[in-house]
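Researcher: Let's try something more involved. This one mixes different molecule types, so please make sure each is placed in the same coordinate frame as the others.
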Amino acid sequence: MNGENSLTLCSTDNFVHIIENLEELQNTQDYPILNELLSEPGICKIGADLKEIIKAVAEKTDIQICGNLYDVQLMHYVLNTEISHNINFIVKQQLSIDIETITSNSKEEAKDLFSGAAEETEEQKKERKKKSAALCALMPIVRDELEKKLSGDRVYKEIEMPLISVLAQVEMAGVKIDTRQLKEYSKELTAQMNEIEQEARKLADDASINLSSPKQIGILLYEKLKLNPNVKKSVKGNYSTDETTLNELKDTHPIVEKILEYRNLKKLLSTYIDALPLLINPKTGKVHTTFNQALTSTGRLSSINPNLQNIPVRTERGREIRKAFVPSDPAGCIVSADYSQIELRLMAHMSGDENLIAAFNSGKDVHAATAAKLYNVSVDEVTAEQRRKAKTVNFGIIYGISAFGLAERMEIPIKEAKEFIETYFKTYPGVSRYINAIAETARKKEYVETIYGRRRYLKDINSRNANVRKFNERNAVNAPLQGSAADIIKLAMIHVFARIQAEHLKSKMVLQVHDELVFDVVPSEREAIMKIAKEEMENVIKLKVPLTADCSYGENWLQAH
DNA sequence: ATAAGCACGC
DNA sequence: GACGTACGTGCTTATA
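Model: All components are placed in one shared frame. Result:
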């Protein structure tokens, strides 16, 4: 094991058990011993989901966990994002040991155990030791695999390992929500929703129709009102009633608009306005999301309980919710810093396309610059409509475009979409070559990589099924872009966090939303935080195009944009 | 309990 | 002839 001393941190559901692999140290509930072991940089820490353990220890003690963090689950994720990282499954698979039987303590029992007021049963202790030993045995196996893939080892050690503690701190900091604002907004929108429900029911001539039921809506629109006799059913025999479909029916009957509006209000109320206040931790008065660091296939984080990465911003009604995300000190502010067009910039960098690089280097709006080239006009002559179309294509490129998909989105015939893509590739021939090259690489290696070497395996890239193959080809294009962006912002978080610590600032990083970092800033630190965020985000890596982060502040998250 | 449908973000 | 732009989470209804 590298000669490195190690400590295995083993948690059951609600409680952290500290297990040392030195037999003579038995009583690890003892604070001085715990402190010495956990804060010793020379002792590496082994476990699964160490972020949870770091948080639990921080909540109950003032101990700082130091030393290398070997999170077997996270290491396994870096090895291959596509497969299961369920720790019980991995242990069973690699060691043929079953640790799924381990009993977990109730919250109350866990509390008592930690304070030393109660003791584990012999049975619990035995199972815990078994799990700990399994993790300890598994770690070097997974680490050897990582070291075999040199880039994977680098991704783990330079990105994921240092990010664990940063994320733990971000989650613990939490974000302040103005509940009173949400409660008032809830009253307002609920009233509106009820009114619309009444109107819709009247129009439907059905006093009890459930507007939240796509099935009932489908029957109403297509069987009772016969709005579209040519409507096709899904494979499961259901009518489609989603937003795109209903927008096409808008002019045929007034109820369609009511349904859309009802859905919009219902979504905002049930997912955000009414749900968020219930998730406020009474101890801290804040909402604390959990970032899943070992989940997405591309290397992005995800956010749950609550998901704070999908707070509305698109519509006026939705944006209102962001006003409730406020600084914890009323005299402070929210600072938001977001990367501008990071994925498209990465496309410019990775493809090396001279025209796309030039578009970014001109410092002009890239969608307008693209439109200028596509329509063969000067940048100031580009119309809003031309820019919108160019923007759609730019996004399409990142997602692995098809003529049909583009035609749908731009509401133009497939033939035109085809021509549009051809023009795009003529404008940016390097992009065209890159897309072909990355697909070829993917077919040969059955994986693609980010700038830092994070892999996404594409095991079905050579499938005989053309649909499956095409799907994998889109992933081959998108994963290096989305994944490199994820790597870059993760590194930025590590650097920003280090600066905040080094400069002894009190403000806190509270959210990451894929290309954006959000800070809860105390009154005197606004300029310092904005400077640090911009500097660290922009200087993570030198690309062939500038990497820019736009930074602003306000008295809430909405104003900080 | 689980799946399907829908809608929110990047 | 089908498929048809990446990555997520969560709410609600319907079905088993």
